[in-house]
Structure formats: structure tokens, C-alpha cells
Write a structure and sequence with these properties.
The chain has 141 residues and is mainly beta. It has one domain. Helix content is 0%, strand content 66%. Strands 1-2-3-4-5-6-7-8 form an eight-stranded antiparallel sheet, with no helix packed on it. The protein is elongated, with a radius of gyration of 19 Å. The relative contact order is 0.12.
Length: 141
């Protein structure tokens, strides 16, 4: 193998959603640490995610995810301290529609944004939570 990529992923979840049926709003937080090993360089990264979800009806769910990631320079004593040390913030928001009132088939509209101006929107079809077909995809607007 020309490139060896080793990933170790550790994740902690915390949320405040209730199992009551009348609770329409939920919030979940996730803190994770990942170690990448690529071309002989170990690059740890940390990410923190806030997930907000609101259920309009049983079959229409809106969500908002805010991700912040930070890549750490493990060789700052040898290289410039700015190499690999950077943070990034991304956000995505979407609406899922389940026409048959089950979790098997859904139509999703989602928009993605990051701090570098990379924005796109998608409309897709999904089965069992997996995206199977893009109906619409805009690269940037």
C-alpha cells in the first residue's frame, strides 16, 4: 500500500431528548477524538457537534448540525506551529419527509455550509437511512 491510513475513533454522546411523545424538540452533543496516521505522520483531530432536531409531524423532521473540528500539529517543536493546526466550522440543515410514516423510505432536502464559502444543497431519496439517489445537487450558490 502506498498510503497507510489508520483511524482511531473515540466518541462521547450527551443529549437531553425525552422519550415522551409530546416532546418535539431534542438536542444532542457529541465530542470525539480521532487519530489519523498518513504517510508516517500522526494527526490527531478533535470534533464537537451540536445536533438539534424538531419534529413537526410524525413524518416531517427538521434538523440542524453544527460541527467544529480542530486538527493538532503533533510535531510543533520541529515544524512550524501552524502546520496542521487549524480549526474548521461547518453546518448543515435539512428536512426529512417520510411519506409512508415509517423509517424505511424518505425524501431529504439538505443544505451544507462551511467557513470557506463551500455551500451546496441536495435533494435525495433514501432507504433505511442511506442515501440512494440524488435528485438535485448544487455545488455552490
Amino acid at each position: 500500500m502506498k498510503f497507510l491510513l489508520f483511524i482511531l475513533f473515540i466518541s462521547l454522546n450527551y443529549g437531553n431528548s425525552n422519550d415522551r411523545e409530546d416532546n418535539k424538540f431534542s438536542h444532542n452533543q457529541q465530542l470525539s477524538m480521532t487519530v489519523h496516521h498518513l504517510k508516517g505522520v500522526t494527526i490527531p483531530s478533535y470534533s464537537y457537534t451540536n445536533k438539534f432536531k424538531y419534529t413537526f409531524k410524525k413524518n416531517i423532521i427538521a434538523d440542524l448540525n453544527i460541527h467544529s473540528r480542530y486538527f493538532i500539529n503533533t510535531y510543533s517543536h520541529i515544524w512550524n506551529s501552524k502546520t496542521f493546526s487549524r480549526s474548521s466550522i461547518t453546518m448543515d440543515a435539512g428536512i426529512n419527509y417520510y411519506p409512508f410514516n415509517n423509517g424505511i423510505f424518505n425524501i431529504e432536502g439538505r443544505t451544507f455550509h462551511d467557513q470557506f464559502g463551500n455551500n451546496n444543497q441536495i435533494i435525495s431519496l433514501g432507504v433505511l437511512g442511506f442515501q440512494i439517489k440524488n435528485i438535485y445537487n448544487s455545488k455552490s450558490y
